Amino acid sequence: MTHGHRGRFAPSPTGDLHLGSAATALVAWLAARSAGAPFVLRVEDIDGPRVVSGCEVEQLDELRWLGLDWDEGPDRGGPCGPYRQSERLASYEAALERLRARGLTYLCDCSRAEIARVASAPHAGDEGLPYPGTCRASGHSPREFRRAPAVRLAVPPGEVVVRDRWQGEVRQDVARDVGDFVLRRGDGVFAYQFAVVVDDLAMGIEEVVRGADLLLSSPRQALLARLLGAEPPAIAHAPLVVGVDGERLAKRARGVPLRDRRTAGECGPEVVGRLARMLGLVPADERGPAEPRDLVARSDLAALVGVRQVRLQGALDPGAC
Questions:
Q1: pLDDT digits over 115-161, tens only?
Q2: Dihedral, CA atoms, 225, 30, 283, 312, nearest 10 degrees?
Q3: Are 90 and 190 in contact (CB under 8 A)?
Q4: Which of 32, 210, 211, 311 could form an S-S bond across to 37 if both were Cys, CB 3.0 to 4.6 Å?
Q5: 168 and 127, same structural domain?
Q6: DSSP state of 314
């Protein structure tokens, strides 16, 4: 893996940014800025039907409200644009064709119900039951499809090993645990797992910082990068922010969306200060607001080693600058 720190944050304009999003954005920004590296903002709007009108503008405004900035992005341009996935479809098509030319993809018209009936795995992974390879032998040969076919990767056998900056070593036999996963759905939408790999390679991203809930995506993405002829970026998975009850954040719960914090009169640095304390980046007894730029030299990113999740705790308490 590469060892630079050119980083990125890649929100999807499908709903409000919330305190968990803000925590990940802050950590990603600090990881790049503390290394003196560029920071890229990419909008992951590839799944058009789920995109909310006006959401991108609001999300970028909320990131600025937090005190975060970026060197390249949809509003600034840059040498690796465009910075919206909806404008990058040609690059995904080209990458898909490279894999097809090497015999690494095939067409599949199996339904989820059919996969469930024949899958032999005792438990489902994060994307459901591993695909049993029903259509693999047919490749791309012309045939009568029962439904619009997806394009799947013919996953080679063997264990994939990745090393995470904070979470340590991750090993996964992708062929066994996930199976031949989808690169483009039957409706023509490119899969997240595929698009982000193509984008990160094209944009020269050297370290991918994101939430720990995506940790098990890393072996698949590392495999894809190598099949496309490149070394994958380094990875660093920050703790997932969960509710006070330890459950995944209810994104629409009062006080969780950043929109609610702003409406309540809170300022961005107050939220940043709370998140920095919650993540252990600064001492727990350090109170008050914090500008991200002031945290660059003194935040302790090593505090994230081995931490998979943090609870909101007092982050929802009322406060203002």
A1: 877 655 444 455 567 898 999 999 999 999 999 999 999 999 999 99
A2: -60
A3: no
A4: 32
A5: yes
A6: G
- Whose CA is closest to 34, among 232, 290, 292, 287? 292
Span 184-210, average pLDDT: 97
Does 260 map to a domain?
yes
CB atoms within 10 A of CB 136: 17
Rg (CA), the chain: 20
Residue with tokens 């067409």: 107
**CA atoms of 102 and 128, how far apart (whole Å):** 27
What residues act catalytically?
Answer: 251
Helix or strand holding residue 97 (H, E): helix 89-101
Owner of token pair 């607001």:
289
Range of the domain at 54: 7-86+239-316
| pLDDT tens-place string over residues 247-289 | 887 666 666 899 999 999 999 999 999 999 999 999 989 989 9
Reply yes or no on whether the pLDDT at 3 is more than 60: no
Query: How is residue 279 written in tokens?
Result: 């993540």
Band of residue 72 on the pLDDT scale cut at 50, 70, 90: very high
- Cβ-based neighbours of 314, under 8 Å, separated by 6 or more: 274, 278
In 3-state terms the chain splits into helix, strand, coil percentages (rounded to 5) of: 35, 20, 45
Instruction: Tell me, yes or no, whether 2 lies in a domain.
Output: no
Q: What is the pLDDT of residue 319?
A: 58
- Given the DSSP bridges, would you call strands 234-238 and 168-173 parallel, antiparallel or unpaired? unpaired
Q: Are residues 159 and 225 in the same domain?
A: yes
- Same domain for 136 and 234, yes or no, is yes
Amino acid 161: pLDDT: 98
Q: Would you say 189 and 48 are in contact if contact means Cβ atoms under 8 Å apart?
A: yes
pLDDT digits over 232-241, tens only?
999 999 999 9
Residues 234 and 260 in one domain: no
Q: Which of 213, 238, 263 is the last residue of a domain?
A: 238
The answer to whether the bond into 219 is cis (omega within 30° of 0) is no
Single-letter code of the amino acid located at 71: D
